[in-house]
């Protein structure tokens, strides 16, 4: 099974439709299978809530797209033959996405306990991808069996000592994902070796743009390298069987074995 790679655009279009469309093109050219955005009601956040120096309500008000703009993004995804994925924050956000005819949805780590949203998604029957950042062992008891779960650490960027990628051990391969908030390619290669079937990485067109995610996200060159390393690791993984390779068979013949 080929690993599915999600290029996470998040809010990094900064409210620009043109930049969002360009991100679709770049994600496809870099080799991603899916591009993911966020659809978040700014009123969900308290008026004074700040993160990394940004007022959250103001930030998500500036980047929120209308249904018309989302349709243009989805049309571009169809044109480029890359899957569209989006993460809602509230039930109303999810209902907006349903109206657009989405084929999958991502549940962010901070919504792990949002029971109204989780119930609505489950009732819809739409495939769900769910991040497990900030969860404990008790939370895992309430996971829905047919969702894809992402091992995730909700630190941005995530330092090496916080990754704890060994959590991938024991997860059902079909439902095993990794949401990578580290910098570099090492964690992704390790995730391949540990059985991840879906890997997600934040990216931006320009690290110098204004916004909380740009500076630590992968730029296009880094994203292309990242995806290339995943594909190389896939080739190295093999099927786990002990049997001579074609090259070994040729060497055995030369040596009369």
Can you walk through the features of this model?
This protein has 257 residues and is of the alpha/beta class. It has a single domain (4-254), classed as Aldolase class I (TIM Barrel, Alpha-Beta Barrel). The protein contains 9 helices and 10 strands. The strands form 2 sheets. An 8-stranded parallel β-sheet has the order 5-2-1-10-9-8-7-6. Strands 3-4 form a two-stranded antiparallel sheet. The model has no long low-confidence stretch (mean pLDDT 93).
Briefly summarize what is shown:
Helices cover 37% and strands 18% of the residues. With 257 residues, the protein is α/β, with parallel strands linked by helices. Strand 8 (148-152), helix 6 (160-163) and strand 9 form a beta-alpha-beta unit.
Task: Outline the secondary-structure elements.
Layout: E1 4-10, H1 17-30, E2 34-39, E3 50-51, E4 54-55, H2 56-63, H3 67-80, E5 83-88, H4 91-100, E6 105-107, H5 115-124, E7 128-131, E8 148-152, H6 160-163, E9 176-180, H7 186-193, E10 198-202, H8 220-237, H9 246-254
Parallel strand pairs: 1-2, 1-10, 2-5, 6-7, 7-8, 8-9, 9-10
Antiparallel strand pairs: 3-4
CATH topology-level fold name: TIM Barrel
* Average pLDDT taken over every residue: 93
Total domain units: 1
Order of helices and strands: EHEEEHHEHEHEEHEHEHH
Number of helical regions? 9
Strand residue content: 15-25%
Distance between the termini: 34 Å
CATH architecture: Alpha-Beta Barrel
Label the structural class: alpha/beta
- Shape summary: globular
Largest sheet: 8 strands, parallel
Give the C-alpha Rg.
20 Å
- Helical fraction equals 25-40%
The CATH class is identified as: Alpha Beta
Which spans have pLDDT < 50 for at least 5 consecutive residues?
A: none
Tell how many strands the DSSP assignment holds: 10
* The CATH H-level homologous superfamily: Aldolase class I
- Order of strands, main sheet, comes to 5-2-1-10-9-8-7-6
């Amino acid at each position: 099974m080929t690993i599915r790679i999600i290029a996470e655009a998040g809010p990094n279009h900064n409210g620009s439709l043109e930049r969002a469309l360009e991100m679709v093109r770049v994600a496809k050219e870099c080799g991603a299978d899916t591009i993911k955005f966020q659809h978040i009601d700014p009123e969900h956040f308290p008026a004074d809530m700040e993160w990394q120096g940004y007022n959250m309500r103001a930030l998500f008000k500036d980047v929120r797209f209308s249904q018309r703009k989302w349709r243009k993004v989805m049309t571009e995804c169809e044109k480029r033959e890359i899957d569209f994925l989006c993460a809602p924050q509230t039930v109303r956000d999810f209902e907006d996405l349903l109206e657009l005819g989405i084929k999958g949805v991502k549940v962010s780590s901070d919504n792990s306990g949002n029971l109204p949203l989780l119930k609505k998604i489950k009732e819809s029957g739409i495939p769900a991808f769910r991040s497990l950042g900030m969860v404990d062992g008790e939370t895992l008891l309430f996971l829905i069996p047919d969702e894809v779960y992402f091992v995730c650490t909700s630190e941005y960027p995530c330092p090496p000592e916080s990754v704890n990628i060994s959590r991938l051990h024991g997860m059902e391969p079909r439902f095993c994902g990794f949401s990578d908030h580290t910098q570099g390619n090492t964690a992704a290669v390790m995730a391949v070796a540990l059985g991840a079937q879906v890997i997600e990485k934040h990216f931006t067109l320009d690290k110098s743009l204004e916004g909380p995610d740009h500076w630590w996200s992968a730029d296009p060159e880094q994203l292309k390298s990242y995806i290339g390393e995943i594909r190389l690791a896939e080739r190295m993984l093999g099927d786990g069987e002990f049997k001579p390779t074609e090259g070994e068979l040729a060497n055995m013949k030369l040596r009369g074995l």
